[in-house]
Design goal:
Main location (chain A): membrane
Oligomer: heterodimer
Protein name (chain A): ABC transporter permease subunit
Number of helices of chain B: 11
CATH class of chain B: Mainly Alpha
Order of helices and strands of chain B: HHHHHHHHHHH
Largest sheet of chain B: none
Number of helices of chain A: 11
Helix content of chain A: over 70%
CATH architecture of chain B: Orthogonal Bundle
Distance between the termini of chain B: 49 Å
Order of helices and strands of chain A: HHHHHHHHHHH
Membrane topology (chain A): Multi-pass membrane protein
CATH superfamily of chain B: MetI-like
Radius of gyration of chain A: 25 Å
Pfam families (chain A): BPD_transp_1 (PF00528)
Strand content of chain A: under 5%
Shape of chain B: globular
Number of strands of chain B: 0
Family (chain A): Belongs to the binding-protein-dependent transport system permease family.
CATH topology of chain A: MetI-like fold
Radius of gyration of chain B: 26 Å
């Protein structure tokens, strides 16, 4: 009985502590930011109303459809290319960095550190520094997406490669297979499905992020949205949003479907 | 050295053909996918070269700026106190929007999970969330900045919006992973909806909700920085934007990047510890 009381007492304490912590996590930011929640709440409804009223594509906006579709197509192509090339580089890095495929602890650590830094450098910094040197063109967007993808994919690939059972590698090692034979015949076939899945996920993500990257680097669909939005051509901006929604949902569905097939 | 020699001697003169892959849809899909990705990439590379920029010169200038950023970071226009304060604001923004998002998403996910809500409602919620998720965060922030004025409120609403849509999907999937027997055991004993949630659902999903919320916090931190730069809503992102696009002070950009990196790596360490803790909880 005493034990039970103790158990419930401890549970009560834990619950109180969790609630306190949650409250603190809410109060601290509010103390820094002074968010006017009434204003924010009012804004939610007003925002939708404003969208419905101003962003409805009209006849004039349809004239921009050609340009919008062109930019959207370029954005997709560039996002795919940047992710694919980042995938190849990340795979090489991951082979050097995964415990299963690399025997050099120092290189393993180096790859991890590199991936972690690349993942966490804000892509705003990449985009703006690239913009300064490469100016406003598709290549800048490509480089920005490439640099922000490398870290994520390297980390994901390292984790995937480390899930390859030692047995697969040892079995090939005892046959006298050389390093690249082991990788090509044993390791890669074992992980090709999860690797592809990661690649698809990153492509999907990068197409989503391309809007923001485009706004910062002045390329693709993000640039054209920014242009319409800032020159108050809201119906055209609305059309851009509709196009982005259609593409994002289509890509999400395709990628989910493909990943299901790959997982079989 | 010796090993390779032996193995090359041992190899049969006519290596046996590799066994035919069993007709496998996954393998076929992988090949088709790889081929299409390679084609698109080649097309992109062929058409991407800018005609108004000398890539050699641009590359050199980029490397020079990287050198300034990463090897010679310094304070420029702003004081360290200003930058740390801005970083704290960005973190606060991420924290606030994640918590708001998580609480609202929990409520909405109850109507989105197929094992809790009637099918038509679940489908409708799912589609609505997919729609909101498809609109980039920055668009929400820009729209709200126009409607309620540029400021923290716009960023809070915009980021929370996307967080809710993201977390509803993640939470609903966690709810659906709860074994039906667990829910039914309480239902047949006559427990009402609230009791089923409290005593069957909540204990089973707590670890996964926590880890999803943390993942979203990391995303929201990145977004808070980006939104500050692209929509001018303040925080460290705004300083990042001003120092690189306005003052062209890449040394300060470097310092800001290091500040953000330090926090992000701290987050990553917390994530690892959290994951260990959660693994023990289950």
């Amino acid at each position: 009985m005493a034990e039970l009381t103790q158990f419930f007492n401890r549970q009560r304490w834990q619950r109180a502590a969790t609630l306190m912590m949650l409250a603190l996590l809410l109060v601290l930011p509010q103390w820094l930011l002074h968010v006017d929640f009434a204003d924010a709440l009012f804004g939610i409804g007003a925002g939708w109303q404003w969208l419905g009223k101003n962003f409805m594509p009209n006849q004039a906006a349809l004239g921009d459809l050609g340009e919008i579709l062109h930019q959207l197509g370029r954005t997709i192509v560039i996002a795919v290319a940047a992710t694919s090339i980042a995938g190849v580089v990340a795979l090489l890095l991951a082979l050097a960095g995964a415990k299963t495929t690399s025997r050099l602890p120092l290189v393993q650590m180096g790859v991890r550190l590199f991936a972690s830094c690349m993942r966490n450098i804000p892509f705003v910094a990449w985009a703006l520094v690239l913009l300064f040197s490469f100016k406003q063109n598709d290549f800048t967007g490509f480089l920005a997406l490439f640099l922000m993808t490398i870290g994520y994919l390297t980390r994901a690939f390292v984790e995937t490669l480390e899930e390859v059972p030692r047995g697969v590698i040892e079995a090939l090692e005892v046959t006298g297979a050389r390093y690249w034979q082991i990788i090509g015949q044993g390791v890669l076939p074992a992980v090709s499905a999860p690797l592809m899945s990661w690649l698809l996920y990153m492509i999907e993500n990068n197409i989503r992020d391309a809007t923001l990257v485009g706004m910062l680097t002045g390329t693709g669909i993000g640039f054209i949205f920014d242009l319409y939005f800032k020159s108050f051509r809201y119906p055209s901006a609305g059309l851009v949003v509709l196009a982005i929604i259609a593409v994002t949902i289509a890509i999400e569905l395709t990628s989910t479907k493909l990943r299901q097939v790959l997982a079989q | 050295m010796i090993e390779t020699d032996i193995s090359s001697q041992r190899r049969a003169p006519h290596p046996p053909a590799a066994p035919h892959a069993i007709a496998n849809p996954a393998r076929k899909t992988t090949r088709i996918l790889l081929a299409s990705l390679a084609l698109i990439t080649l097309y992109a590379l062929a058409t991407i070269a800018p005609d108004n920029v000398d890539l050699g010169v641009a590359g050199k200038s980029f490397l020079h700026n990287l050198d300034l950023m990463f090897l010679h970071p310094h304070l420029g226009q702003d004081t360290l106190a200003q930058l740390v304060d801005a970083l704290a604001r960005s973190i606060a923004l991420a924290l606030l929007t994640t918590l708001i998002g998580a609480v609202i998403a929990f409520g909405l996910a109850l109507f989105t999970a197929r094992n809790l809500a009637p099918a038509p409602l679940a489908t409708a919620m799912r589609s609505l969330m997919a729609l909101i998720r498809a609109i980039p965060t920055i668009l929400w922030v820009l729209v709200y900045a126009t409607v309620i004025g540029l400021g923290t409120e716009a960023a809070v609403v915009g980021l929370s919006f996307h967080s809710v849509a993201y977390l509803v999907k993640a939470f609903a999937e966690s709810f659906e992973a709860v074994p039906q027997e667990k829910l039914d055991a309480l239902r047949v004993s006559g427990a009402r909806f609230g009791l089923v949630i409290r005593h069957a659902l909540w204990p089973s999903v707590r670890p996964s909700l926590l880890s999803w919320t943390f993942i979203r916090f990391e995303i929201n931190f990145t977004n808070a920085v980006a939104v500050g730069a692209a929509a001018g809503t303040g925080g460290i992102g705004y300083y990042l934007f001003m120092s690189s696009a306005f003052y062209f002070d890449f040394q300060e950009v470097g310092l800001i990047v290091y500040l953000v990196l330090a926090f992000a790596i701290l987050l990553e360490m917390i994530a690892v510890a959290l994951r260990k803790h959660l693994a023990k909880m289950v």
